[in-house]
Design a protein that fits this description.
alpha+beta; seven-stranded antiparallel β-sheet; 3 helices
């Protein structure tokens, strides 16, 4: 009996720190990159369109969205890629992922304009504190942008600060995703940090071809509106408490001891 108790005590002493290891990752190393992967434009119109991994531009042939005569509009991704070791679990301070700027310029009538765009964000996470570990599988987050280049005739059909605002809508998509790691559940959230992205009115959502309660922003003519996006991560332990495993091992030992006594 003394020998069994001693063996059980040693096993518990070994198992306790093992079970207690399932602590939250408190800080992460990260790499995040965003790019345009596709777009659709109005079928009619004689203006040209241009697409790259960071710029979607439309409007007059040979024109510009950022310098005179500013006869093109654009959605431009900047501040991407981003990396660091300062992504903190359960912090309310997001790390920067990218900035999307809408250059809203007056376009000639009949010019093709953007209707939808596909945004892909690639996220790599690696535990950094309290214990560094190997990188987790890469996550790919996909977002659909709905866009409407409104006619500047004053008959907007929705609340507008200019004559008339253009409308940018981002569908929720993968804004929030979850994964499990080492006995804990983590949730990542892509958030907009400049308060440009808000819930739009039903009329503005309908104008952009989106359902009521859509999330987006409106941009006034001849202005550049920037929306800054960041990443948050929350975590909660979901593994059984260490004491549960130790108690189970103790009960198993007592059961084995009872069987030995019964066999005598």
């Amino acid at each position: 009996m003394k020998r069994l108790i001693k063996t059980t005590a040693l096993a518990c002493a070994f198992l306790l720190p093992q079970l207690a290891q399932a602590a939250l990752v408190t800080q992460w190393e990260y790499e995040v990159a965003s790019e345009w992967t596709g777009a659709t434009f109005q079928a009619s119109g004689d203006g040209t369109t241009a697409t790259s991994s960071s710029v979607l531009s439309w409007g007059a042939t040979g024109g510009s969205y950022s310098s005179s005569p500013k006869n093109r509009s654009a959605l431009v991704i900047s501040n991407s890629p981003q990396s660091g070791t300062d992504l903190v679990t359960n912090s309310m301070m997001p790390v920067l992922t990218n900035v999307i700027t809408h250059f809203n310029n007056i376009l000639a009538g009949g010019t093709k304009s953007l209707e939808t765009a596909l945004l892909k964000t690639t996220l790599k996470l690696k535990p950094f504190l309290p214990t560094p570990d190997s990188a987790l599988p890469t996550k790919t987050l996909n977002f659909t942008i709905r866009f409407i280049e409104t006619p500047n005739d004053g008959s907007c059909g929705f609340d507008s600060a200019s004559n008339c605002d253009d409308i940018f809508v981002i569908e929720v998509g993968d804004l929030v995703t979850s994964f499990n790691y080492n006995g804990a559940k983590y949730t990542t959230a892509v958030v907009e940090t400049t308060s440009s992205l808000t819930g739009l009115s039903p009329a503005a959502c309908a104008q952009a071809g989106a359902g009521a309660g859509c999330l987006g922003f409106k941009t006034i003519e001849q202005a550049a509106t920037a929306a800054m996006f960041g990443l948050l991560i929350n975590g909660v332990e979901v593994s059984a408490p260490a004491g549960t495993g130790v108690l189970g091992l103790g009960l198993l030992s007592l059961f084995m001891y009872g069987r030995r006594r019964s066999a005598k």
